[in-house]
Every structure is written in C-alpha cells, then in structure tokens.
Amino acid sequence: MKLKNLSITHKIFIVFFVVVALSTISFLHILDKTYEVSLINQGRSIAQQILIFRKWAASFGGIWTKDKYTPEIGYLMEFETKEGTAKAYKTGEALKNFGETHFYLHNPALATRELSNLSKIEYGWTFRVVSDRYMAPESKPDKWEATAIKKIKERKKDEYWSWDGNKFRFAKAIRVKKGCLKCHGSPEQIDPALLKAMRAKYGDNVDRAINYKEGDLRGIISVTIVPPSIIATAISLVDMWNIGALLLAFLVFWFFAKNEIIKPIENITKAAHDISLGKLDIDLGVRGLKEDEVADEITKLAIAIDRLRASIQIAMERLRKKK
Fold first, then answer.
1. Considering only CA atoms, which of 282, 145, 162 is closest in space to residue 217?
2. What residue ranges are annotated as transmembrane (predicted)?
3. Which residue would you say has higher pLDDT here, 282 or 1?
C-alpha cells in the first residue's frame, strides 16, 4: 500500500507506533547493558570477598577446626592432643579442659571449596577456585574456565566475563602473593611437614602446583550466576504507573496531532475544495494574520490559501464589473 493512499490520521498512528517500537527496543538495549553491568558488579563483589577471605586464611597458615571437618572434602593435616585447656584472652584464665582433642587444618583452597558448596545451597549462585595447574581434581577448570584463564593470560587483565548459555559467568584472577609461597613456592620455601601432608593428600599432582613466583597467575575465582531473562526483568519493571504514563503520552500525542495537525489540514482541504467550486465566502480563521507573524507552517499554509481565495474573489468581482 502506498503512503499516499493512507489518510494523515493513519500515517500519524503508524509513525507513533514505529516510534514506540523503536523506543522499546532502545529501552531493552539499555536495560540489557545495565543488567550486564549489574551482573559484572555482582560477580566482582563475590570474587573480591572470596579473595579477602583467602588472604585472611593464608595469613594464619590456614583454618583449624576442632573435632569437625567435611568428610567429602577432608583436611590437609590433623593435630591431636591428649589434653586441651581453653584460656581467656588477656587474663589467661583457664576456662575449660577439653580432654583429648583433634584439630584439622583447612588450607585456603579447602576452605573456599567448602564455602562454594555452602553458597550453592544458600544463595543460588556458585563459585569455584580453579587452575590450569590444579592440585585437587575438583580444581580442574571446565571448558569456559579454561577459556577464561587463557583470555586473562593473553589480555594481561585480571577479569573476564561472558554468557555461557543462560548463565552469566565471571572470572577473577588469583595472583600469587608472598603468603601463597608457603604452599605453592619452591620445595625449599614450603615447610617439610606441610609438603608431606600435601603429597599424602594429592600425590604427584603437587608437583604441578608448586614452584610459583610472586605475581604469577595461580588460577581464577569462577563465579556462576543464573539470573532471570531480560524479558522477565523488563516485565517485572512494568507496573500501573508505567502503563498509565504510556497511555497519558498517547492521549497527549493524539490531542496534539488531532487539534494541531489533522483538524487544520482537514479545514484547509475543505476550503481548497470549496474554492475550486467557486465558494469564495469562507473563513479559514486566519484573517488579519500575516505570514511573518506566525511560525506554524500549517497556519502559514492557511494564510496563503486565504490570500489565494481573496485574490480569486477580487478577480471575480472585476470580471463582473467589466460585464
């Protein structure tokens, strides 16, 4: 259908809906970008908290738990005492005698693995600490994580993120600090008892997880978030205020278009039709106005048509007088 076969009312409606459609697409694009930035910040926040926790645990040489550990994860070293006495801070006052007590050492890697299992249950997002030089089989990177490690090395940046299907995944580099060398430095830098405990737990895999230097990439914190879809998010943002504002915008637009465009053009069209039939005694509502005094183009057109009507009327009167 050609546009000239449509009324100006239909054209205005078409333009209005095209503008609304393009605005909606633009809004969804902005929402998508904002949504992604929000997910990046969420992933970054989670990773930073894990890094802080690992740094704290490493500063104490790991975390010792009393008479308890997670069986599926285990521990790195056990400390047994036949008699244990609890004492108060500062005063040294004896508080309780525990008798035979067992303490289990969880190095930062084991501790963060337990936190990961807890986060999966409690919060709906998960994280893993993985490395291309992994010691424990659980720390072996999956396909996305292997790509993340590769990209971080190539780009020499400490972050990488992308969508993996319907999952948003964020990777944060773990750089070797001085405290990390206690477990991942050269054999000479690692306590012999700790090295024996590591070999007892991880076997020959220990060899590929040591001999690091400060600043080396030890691995990544891999955060996985399964957010709702962008469409579901957009729908969740729509309420009665949004719908009311859209309807009000449409009514304002329609009121303006009807009274300032459609109706004046209809009047001019009717006037031109009447003039063509010789009906010159018509009022366009612009008598006394001058074109240089108005800015509205339709009003200027009406003034021009009215001037044409007046000129024809004068010409017709002159012809009558000559007769």
1. 145
2. 12-31, 230-256
3. 282
Integer Rg of the chain from CA:
39
pLDDT for 246 equals 79
Q: Which amino acid is at 212?
A: Y
For residue 149, count other CB atoms closer than 10 A to its CB: 22
pLDDT tens-digit profile of 192-234? Answer: 999 999 999 999 999 999 999 999 999 999 999 887 766 666 6
The answer for residues whose C-beta is within 8 angstroms of residue 130's C-beta and 6 or more apart is: 139, 140, 141, 142, 145, 149, 219, 220, 222
| pLDDT, position 118 | 79
User: Is pLDDT of 309 > 80?
Assistant: yes
DSSP 156-221: T-SEEEEEETTEEEEEEEEEPPGGGHHHHS-TTTS-HHHHHHHHHHHGGGGGGG----TT-EEEEE
Q: What is the DSSP letter of 291?
A: G
Edge-to-edge strands of the sheet including 63-66? 63-66, 94-106, 77-87
User: Measured between alpha carbons, how far is 171 from 216 in angstroms, rounded to an integer?
Assistant: 16
Q: Which two tokens stand for residue 304?
A: 């021009």
The larger pLDDT score, comparing residue 7 to residue 76, is at 76
Question: CA-CA distance, 212 to 195, in Å (whole number)?
Answer: 15
Q: Which of 143, 291, 166, 273 is nearest to 225 (CA)?
A: 166
In this predicted model, what pLDDT tens digit does every residue of 114-145 receive, in sequence order? Answer: 888 877 656 667 899 999 999 999 999 999 99
pLDDT digits (tens, 9 = 90+) for 10-20: 777 888 888 88
Distance (Å, whole) CA 53 – CA 108: 8
Query: Helix, strand, or coil here: 129?
Result: strand
Contact by Cβ (8 Å): 223, 115: no
pTM: predicted TM-score of the whole model, two decimal places = 0.70
Q: Are 222 and 128 in contact (CB under 8 A)?
A: yes
Q: Please say whether the beta carbons of 164 and 172 come within 8 A.
A: no
Q: Do 303 and 322 meet the contact criterion of CB atoms below 8 Å apart?
A: no
